[in-house]
Amino acid sequence: MTASEPDLRGRVALITGSSRNLGAEIARAAAARGARVVVNYHSSRSAAQEVVASLAGPGHVAIAADVSTPEGVEELAAEAERLTGAGIDILVNNSGPFSMTPFSDLQPHEFDFIWNANVKSAYMASRRVAPGMIARGWGRIVNISAGSAYIRNHSVYTLAKNAIITLTEQLAAELGPAITVNCVAPGQIAESAEDMAEFDKEFVARTIARTPAGRLVTRREVAGVVLALCSPAFGMVTGATVPVDGGARLPVG
Question: Which architecture, in CATH terms, is 12-186+221-244?
Answer without folding.
Answer: 3-Layer(aba) Sandwich (3.40)
